[in-house]
Amino acid sequence: MSASARWSVVALVILVALGVAFWSELDAQDPASPAGNDARDTVSARDKRDADTPEALAGPRAAAALEPCPAPGEGQGPAPLRGIVLECVGDGTPTDIAAAVAGRPVVLNLWAYWCGPCADELPAMAEYQRRVGPEVLVLTVHQDENESAALIRLAELGVHLPTVQDGRRSIAAALQVPNVMPATVVLRADGSVAEILPRSFATADDIAAAVDPKIGVA
C-alpha cells in the first residue's frame, strides 16, 4: 500500500470515530432517550461535597430527624423548576422539585448553614408551618455544598422542616432570586411565583403577614 493510500485510510478511521462520538453525544442529550431521562432523574454530585457520603451523613441525619420531602403533587409544577432534581437532606432520596411543589401553595426558604440571619429565621419558618398546617408547604433549600453542616445546624436549632440540598443554587437561578440569604419564594398552587422576598423574618407573625395575602390563606 502506498503512503498516500495509508494516510487516506487513517483519515477515514478518524472521521468515522468522530462521527460516532458526535452522534453518541447527541443521543445522551436527547430528552426522549433513556440516557437523557436518567440524567434528569439523577442528583448532581456537584450539589454537595465528596465527603458527604451516605455513611458520613447517617449520624447527622438521625440527629436532625427531618420531615420527609413532599411527594409529588397534582400537575407538572412551575415550568422554571422542571428538570431540577435535588437530594432530600433528611433521607438522601432524589426529589423532583417541580413535582414536589405542584398543586399546592409553597414557601421556599433559601438558606445556608453559615448564614446568621438564616439561623434566626428558620425557627420562625418552622413555627409558621406548625400554625398554617397542611394548607401550605414550607420547604427549605440549603444553598451550600456542606450538607453535613446543614444537618448539624438544623439539629441545633430543633428545626425539622423538609429540606433539599442545592449546592449549585439551581432553584435560585431558575427563579431569578437575588443573590442574598435568607430569601423566600412564595409559590401559588398553580405554580406561579406570587412574590420573591429577599429578606429575613423574625417571627411567624411576620412571615404570615408577608405570605398569607399572596396565596389566599385566611
UniProtKB/TrEMBL annotation:
SUPFAM superfamilies: Thioredoxin-like. One of its GO terms (cellular component) is cell envelope. Keywords: Cytochrome c-type biogenesis, Disulfide bond, Redox-active center, Signal-anchor, Transmembrane. Residues 38-52 have a biased composition (Basic and acidic residues). Residues 56-216 form the Thioredoxin domain. InterPro entries: Redoxin (IPR013740), Thioredoxin-like_sf (IPR036249), Thioredoxin_CS (IPR017937), Thioredoxin_domain (IPR013766), Thioredoxin_ResA/DsbE_sf (IPR050553). One of its GO terms (molecular function) is isomerase activity. Pfam families: Redoxin. This is Thiol-disulfide isomerase-like thioredoxin. It comes from Mycolicibacterium gilvum (strain DSM 45189 / LMG 24558 / Spyr1).
